[in-house]
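hey all, quick one before standup. I had two proteins in the batch that finished overnight and I want to keep them in one place so we stop losing track of which output belongs to which input. First protein below, input sequence then structure tokens straight from the run.
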Amino acid sequence: MSKPHFQLPKVYESQGGWGPTNDVIPLKFQDIPYAPFSKGDKLGRVADWTNPDAQKQDNREVTGRTGRSGFNRFNRDQHQAYGAAFASTFAYTHTEDESSFSVVDNRSANAKKMAIKAAGGGQRGRVQTKEPRTNTGGYRTVNQRGGRQQQGRRRYGYKDYDKPQRVRNASINIGADWKMLDEIEFSRLSKLNFGIPEAEDVASYGSVNYYNKAYDRVNTKNDKPLAHIERVKYDTTTSEDPIIQQFMQDNKATVFATDAVLSLLMCSTRTVYPWDIVVKKVDDKVILDKRPGGVFDFITVNENAADPPAETDKDTINSWSALSTEATYINQNFARQVLDNKNQHKFSNPNPFASEDTKDKLASCGYRYRKFDLTSSQAEEDAERMYLMVRTEVDAAVKTGNQTTLMTVRALNEFDPNAQGAGNSLPWKKSLDSQRGAVVAAEMKNNAAKLARWAVQAMLAGAEQLKLGYVARQDPKNNNRHVVLGTQAYKPKDFAAQMNLSLTNGWGIVKAVADMCLQLPEGQYILLKDPNRPILRIYAVSNEDLEANDDESDNDAEGEEKDN
């Protein structure tokens, strides 16, 4: 029987710190990574199957209010120690792509309803209304969200999320061979400024009737039906105006335009719908012109509304094209109806566009040719001076005491307060007399571009009054009969200030465009507003391209007249 013996194990000294040395690690453990540890580590659970989230909870407690040694019921015998981060070395990582998988919502219907109520604020601010059923009769209850809209957040209507983004077509067919020379963003145009130049009256033509002050007493309880009055009014383009042609020969100015073209250019940053201006460079002169049958011959409706009128369905009376035609008809007839046909104010020269057949059927219109100095402060010599000649128009005259002042007449129209594109405006027949300020504020918001152009046209013409009429449909479902519900007079400058219209910015845009066009070689160009973006582009075009587009515009206009 052998005697028991005891032999001390050999102690190996590790020079690199605590842990086994390389010469004593068995071969089968050589490739296993080693997690360092500290002498202060306490032994905890080898495996805790009852608390899979203990590590996550412990990690959250590390940065909590109680500091690094924060206590919770999961880490009573688990502490952060040196080498704890190396536990992820042994963790399993799933590298398979799971982007094609989706989570299926298996909640009950009640749980989903509760989640929707929590996201939308519950039933607070909702109003229950009753709508008639279409098939079974009776009524059904509909919840409508009411209350105050949250500041800075848009209120969406029924199926607003499902409405496709509107894509408009350009006002002119852009040829494949057109060369784009430059483009300017509206953000850059809005920063331009130029001092308001003084106007110089050069010549005046035509005659205007005096305004009938009886229409100042018209209101919603004493309305007047809108009459259809046949008159002839000439709206000749800039290049075909014989007076402007004579001014060009006499070198009276450098840039030539009409008040319609110039006002659109000055208010271009407010526009949403597409438009175009024809630019003609002849010798050292620039002509800003319009295309016959283009956007200048029609008036827009609620262009700046958050949800403008529909543009796709042309068969309804509330479509964009039908409303534009209706507004143009209303403006023409309202401006003729509110005048006294017995008394006239004649200008120095007769109407330059009238013929023997039309001289007795002319509409009230006075043409004032006015010159503006657009010379920069750096230009000191006369050869460097730039003058702008504008043909402006006035519609009527009014006697104030012993003086006769000039007036421009325009009409705002209401089609259907409940239709798409109405812009949440109040019904005029109920609110125009008692809440006219709210009605005007809504019109300034929904028709910011149109009203700004009207104010600019009145100031360019030197008119001291801008007379606005309020014309509504007699029946919202019929666009053939209208009634005049009231009138209101403004001073053009005060009206522009009320709309926050910057005249210095408008003249800055005109000055920049004129300088750009004067640097172009001789030829024809198109200044185009992008149909879907706030950008101006200028293209070089040929005479054939313009003639082809003019023919298409004439055909479209004839088709619309036949439809109407």
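OK second protein, same deal, sequence then tokens:
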Amino acid sequence: MKKKRFRFQWGAFLLLIFYGGLFFLLFTRMVTLQATGEVEGQELAARAAAKYGKESVITANRGKIYDQNGQVIAEDTLSYRMIAIVSEKATTDPKNPRHVVDSEKTAKVLAKYIPAMKEKEDEIVKKLNNRYRSDGEPLYQVEFGSAGRGISHEVMSKIKEEKLPGILFVSDLKRYYPNGVFASHLIGYALKKDNEDGTVTTKGEMGLEYTYDKELTGVNGKVEYETDAFRYLLPNSEKMITPAKNGDDIYLTLDKTIQSFLEEAMTKVEQEYNPESMTAVVADPKTGKILAMSQRPTFNPETRESQNMKWLNEVIEETIEPGSTMKTFTLASAIDTGKWTPNDWFMSGSYTVFDRTIRDHNRYGWGPITYLEGFQRSANTGMAHLLTKIGDDVFIDYLDRFGFGHKTGIDLPNEAAGTILSKYPIQRVTTTYGQGSTVTPIQLIQAMTAIANDGKMMQPYVIDRIVDSSTGKIIQNHEPVEKGQPIKADTAKQVREILASTLTSKHGTAKDFILEDYEVAGKTGTAQIPKASGGYLSNQYLYSFLGLAPVDDPQLIVYVSVKKPKLNNELGSVPVSKVFNPVMLNSLKHLNINPDDVQHVNKVSIQDFTGQSAEAVEVELANDGLQPIVVGSGGKIIEQYPTNTQKLVKGSFVFLKTDGEVTLPDFTNWSLRNLLVFKSMTGLEMEIFGEGFVASQSVSAGTVITDSSPIVVKLKTPAESFVQDVEAASEGEVEEVEDE
């Protein structure tokens, strides 16, 4: 038998060495990984978590903005975010594609339903055709930025009906402003913003939304879980939930109803008179709370569309020359210093300071008139003469006390301070009637609170409280802040009485602002508009009114300005009154403020009695429940007050002027306004002291007045309100200064 010879197999040996080495390396690697848990310096657990661990965001709601009564002004609401799937891997059945297959058609349909995409159709096509990221990795889905967010349910449904492959919608939150145009420059707006990390956050862009963005913004929560390679949730995997923290809620001082009154009135005037701009504020003088604030032109925060609009809150951020509304505070300074002598005379028409001359609005004046009549006529020269009594330094000090030239400190950003010009004598003179120096509307409101609030000046504010939306706990609570007492209580009351006479006096410039049920006090303003290059525009004015009501116990202050309205042979006060009157009247009724007299429910119409017998008319009026006052010795009536076609409350006075000597009536319980009417009709020398109802008179009732001896009448504060007198519209006023 032949013995087999052993042959060494080099091929097998080499294969053994090769595979044995690989096995050894693999075994060594496995042992190393198990021992260290790291690869290339990174922990395997971390890499696995990164690959298979998933995280879902729980979106936090932005805090709501409410009015003082809890009515919603701004809130988050359900909307939809659009996503386009561009990866072909999403489609498993070619007959039922799950990704975008026709970019051009998809872009055209989306542009049809989403206005923001109409001008970006080419960009949409490019986005849908781009299937790779900048690093070369394939894209699974794309989004469309702000144009693809905030989509309503209606639009979402219409796009779904088109059955576009690859277009999906995800529920989202959108900032919603349910009232449309509503204090828009105050509230502002918030928009969705893309962050660098790919997340989306709602950010305040303007107004309170911007100022209080930190408080309103919540903190998103998250859900963490594990999936397999196919993105299916692994069985028994733990879910870790971090709940979202919603933003804080902000309650404003605004009253939604009053704000709506204001918006409606301003919109009507804007449509009728097409002014360049308008501003208006309603405030509570007792607390300083701003109950309403708006301006024109304005915008709807839902669309943010506007024309020729300034993106700033003009009530706070823009200064104006206030015109004759400033005379209110000149008057208050004179009364508070004891320099107000209403029955003293001055020469109206013009007043010269060195080489400069100021003139009254009618340029030639009214001859010698009393300071009281001068104020009622809004005579600039009266203020100039009054300044010599007050003293320049004292007057400027009072303006400082009223807060002019300083920020009010309202809880809003970018407040302007204005400038009180006082370096030169002519500047101090023009400042008395509101020219040259600048203020903000909110400063006028703050200063007027001192007049309305018996000398106590209140700081205006718009934030009532900030509340944790989850717990209801009050985080910030704003209380009324007294800014000092620039004038005495008696001064404030007297100023209100005189301001009321600008509506009821025969010479008053504010007759357009008379309300049917409430007594209003205030001052008109007709300010020239300065040019950027110096000087003033010709025949272009800022018309305004700063008023309060009711006079005896003011509950509201309203400021309205209308710049460069297109007037139809009307006074500039007319468009202003068309905002002021309905807002003041409706707001007082909304607040359940009782009218000046419960007898206002019983009203009597009167006619024009001129030329009729005073004796016969006297009987007729008395039978109607009115109080006729015959001025003169009787006979034919040559003038009456109030004028014809007026509706008066029963018990109201009706003055009938005739020829002949005047017999002094019994003034007991007469109001200041009735005294002023009697004085104006008779031309008698009367010195009036105090406010309210007449308490005494120096000349007995029934005396026939035959000489010019002054009659002293003293008033006392009334225990109950008096009946308002009513009068028709009057002339307006214009302030100007010129070089000599």
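Flagging for whoever picks this up: Residues 44-53, 597-601, 718-740 have pLDDT under 50 and may be disordered. The longest strand covers residues 72-85.
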